[in-house]
Amino acid sequence: MNEAVPVVPSSAESMAKQGCEKLGLDAFDALVRRARTCRRFDESMRVPREFLLELAELAHLVPCGANAQRLRFHVVSGAEDCARVFDELAWAGALKDWPGPAEGERPTGYIAILAERTVPGKPAAPITEVDTGIAAQTMMLAARSATPEVAACMFKAFTPRAIDAMGLDNDKYELKLIMAFGVPAETQVIDAIDSNPDGTINYWRDEAQVHHVPKRPLSDVLV
Cα(93)–Cα(203) distance, rounded to whole angstroms? Predict the structure, then answer.
């Protein structure tokens, strides 16, 4: 009787993929690949404030340094409030000829991640940088798992006026990150590291306005 010959993985990537299948991680693998930064949204479909509050609820439950729970979250959902935050953001530094989303394609909600300052006016504890990353990625994955999907864009590039635009006390809180949310109105794909026509590893858009994100193969990042 002939027996099927096991397929030998040809690369670290295929080995990792087979591992996901065996461990039942297929759905999570797909979610991680789908949860790319989104910069154009369907503004006619507003993200409910209750949904943003649920994301903040999840984010405040994740692990943090020494369980000190130094992060604070500020939810912005009203159209006028969203417009004030939008004006303080810098969009897509790698897309030099694109000023940012036009009206009708802008986020419909924001969550600001802040860290409480131990001493007024002084930087928050360094570990809050790590805490912020954990909280932000948790919210991005949670949003993409919703039905319909909600996409996000994380901002570290904002003006010093951003915290004032949200009516928050800069002496008490350090603004770490602003996350923009909305129903996605663009397609993002993970692409080969050498896919950008200009020869860089910057993200790029093709003629159909599909957003390409070059990523190194797993074999290049294992050390």
Answer: 10
Provide the pLDDT for residue 17: 67
What does the pLDDT average to over 153-173? 97
Give residue-wise pLDDT tens across range 32-46. Answer: 999 999 999 999 999
Length of the chain: 223
Instruction: Assess if CATH 3.40.190.10 describes domain 49-182.
Output: no
Q: Domain coordinates of the chain in residue numbers?
A: 49-182
Which residue(s) pair with 158 in the sheet? 89
- Quick: pLDDT tens for 197-218: 999 999 999 999 999 999 999 9
Contact, 127 vs 65, CB < 8 A?
Answer: yes
From 125, 90, 116, 123, select the one nearest 169 (Cα to Cα): 116
Contact criterion met (CB below 8 Å) for 151 and 108? no
Beta strand 151-155 pairing with 173-182: antiparallel
CB-based contact 111:75 (threshold 8 Å): yes
